[in-house]
Design goal:
mainly alpha, UPF0223, UPF0223 protein GS18_0203940, 2 strands, BH2638-like_sf, Annexin V, domain 1
Length: about 90
Amino acid sequence: MDYQYPIQPDWSTTEIIDVISFFQAVEKAYEKGISREDFMKKYRRFKEIVPSKAEEKNICDDFEEISGYSSYRAVKKSKDNSDAEIIKM
C-alpha cells in the first residue's frame, strides 16, 4: 500500500481509524476475502461517520482512484450475497 486513505480533517481520531478500517476491509475483500459479517460491521460504522450518499460516493471514488479497489462493488456484493460467509472480489 503506497497511498494515503481519503480522510476529512474534521473527523475525530476514532472516526479516522474506523474509516481506514473500512477501506482496509475493502482491500482484504479484493486480496484474500473477508467475513461478510465483519465487512458489513465496518461498513455500518463507516456510514455512521459518512451518512451522506454524495459524500460517501466522493470519498469512495477517491479511494478507488488511488487504490484501484471499488468499495461500491464490495458493498454491493456483500449486500447481494446475504447468505455468503466470505466476501471475495
